[in-house]
Design a protein that fits this description.
This protein is an all-beta fold. The protein is 2% helix and 47% strand. It is built from two helices and 39 strands.
């Protein structure tokens, strides 16, 4: 049973072990609210009437998750005299609804069959700085993601330099071959996962995962990046458009986002200096002092989805960080990366049609590579790729609310509605209806005959 209370005092953290980051502290709180919650209940729902018997003695808010099997024009439910819904309300509007996004690709990244690293195929895929494409990628069958391949027990970024560092990024790049037609107007959604490992040498490692948008000839026209800075600096995210042939080191690109997420999520740990020893010589050992800043932000270990739509010369975009524990989008913009925007290409400089994609995993060699000191490079993956042909509705024209397979969450506890993690507004609602103790009649409406639907709620006691 969970009781509600409020904190009255928090002591200063004290180290448990000198020199370590483990701390102990005391939190004092008092029970100030005579409410309590029972364990969460999850129940499957059917289209039409559902009878729900709720324990407890107080009203509670339902959270309904729906994954339709086909494009959905509207959805809603009736509960205890209240109505709540999303999409066109009247039968005429529902009949005339326009589907703005028609699915072209829905790839869970479960196979490398549609990806090639042929040198000619990847020659148009660009990134910033010096780089050399080498090594290989593979599918992690346990989680259906693309990652750097493991060869002989290590990540295959290709051959590392042995005597000199020149700032060159090294690693595999692949081009997606599954698009048959170029799209003038489109919507693309893809996720990148990035994780740095703790430790004196591990945290100095630099990785860069880049998902590239390509034209029909394979030239880069945009990119979504999660990357690291040298010496353990903060991890960043970038979303940029470019003209074919741009290297992102010139002026032929447009930055939609470049940053570290919310400033409140940044923690600057003390800078560590470490000595490296050249183990290749037992007679003349060489010591080198290196810096490990240990700068941590919300992107150090993160899973971020890009959602980009091109409609004529108007680009709308969203970057949304997801939880690695439950797969749900984060809601707290003060702690996690939740950003969106709109940009108009007034001079039509970035009008190239979308013809494909590239995926790049790069590592920049560091002093540890030269001096044969083992460390762990960042873990990077591509997760999920979805593409739609975008049809721009006219103002006030009724539209579909979701495509097949997109998750809709109607949350009456937080008073929010999301479609595939994107916040949307309900069109018709008396309020956010509540479940009452005892027997409830909850009626689901919409084209939901074979949809996957789940009701979640916390029974409450007064």
């Amino acid at each position: 049973m969970t009781y509600w209370g409020h904190i009255t005092a928090i002591s200063e953290p004290a180290p448990i072990n000198p020199g370590m980051y483990d701390m102990t502290l005391t939190i004092t709180f008092v029970q100030s609210d005579p409410r309590a919650t029972l364990p969460q209940v999850e129940k499957p729902l059917n289209s039409g009437l559902n009878t729900i018997t709720v324990d407890g003695t107080a009203r509670t808010a339902p959270v309904i998750q729906v994954v339709p099997k086909r494009p959905l024009k509207y959805i809603g439910f009736n509960l205890n005299g209240g109505q709540f819904g999303l999409g066109p309300e009247t039968p005429d509007d529902q009949a005339n609804a326009v589907q703005p996004d028609i699915h072209v690709i829905n790839d869970p990244i479960a196979s490398m069959a549609m990806w090639t690293n042929d040198a000619n195929a990847i020659s148009g895929i660009k990134t910033d700085g010096k780089y050399n494409y080498q090594g290989s990628a593979e599918i992690n069958a346990d989680t259906t993601v693309m990652r750097v391949a493991y060869v002989n027990g290590g990540k295959d970024f290709g051959k590392m330099p042995t005597n000199q560092l020149d700032g060159t990024w090294l690693g595999p790049t692949y081009r997606y071959t599954g698009m048959t037609n170029a799209l003038t107007n489109y919507r693309v959604r893809a996720g990148l996962h990035h994780m740095k490992y703790w430790g004196t040498h591990n945290f100095r490692a630099m990785g860069k995962a880049q998902f590239s948008l390509l034209d029909a000839s394979g030239n880069t026209i945009g990119r979504f990046v999660i990357g690291d800075h040298m010496q353990g600096g903060q991890t960043y995210v970038a979303l940029q458009l470019c003209k074919p042939g741009s290297t992102f080191d010139d002026d032929d690109h447009q930055t939609l986002y470049w940053g570290y997420g919310p400033s409140g999520a940044f923690r600057n740990y003390r800078t560590h200096y470490s000595d490296l020893v050249n183990k290749s010589s037992l007679v003349h050992s060489k010591y080198v002092t290196v810096v490990n800043r240990e700068e941590v932000d919300c992107l150090t270990t993160s899973w971020v989805f890009m959602d980009l739509t091109k409609a004529g010369n108007v680009y709308t975009w969203e970057l949304h960080q997801y939880s690695l524990y439950d797969g749900q989008p984060y809601r707290n913009a003060n702690k996690y990366l939740i950003a969106s925007g709109r940009w108009v290409d007034t001079n039509n400089e970035y009008e190239s049609a979308l013809g494909g994609f590239g995926q790049t995993f790069l590592k920049q060699p560091i002093t540890e590579d030269i001096d044969n000191v083992q460390y762990m490079a960042p873990y990077m993956t591509l997760t999920d790729l979805q593409v739609w042909q975008h049809n721009q509705p006219q103002p006030n024209e009724p539209t579909y609310i979701a495509n097949a397979g997109e998750e809709i969450v109607m949350d009456c506890e937080t008073d929010t509605v999301t479609v595939n993690g994107r916040l949307v507004s309900p069109v018709w609602s008396t309020d956010y209806p509540q479940l009452k103790p005892g027997v409830n009649g909850l009626t689901m409406v919409g084209d939901l005959a074979d949809a996957q639907m789940t009701l979640k709620y916390l029974p409450k006691l007064l």
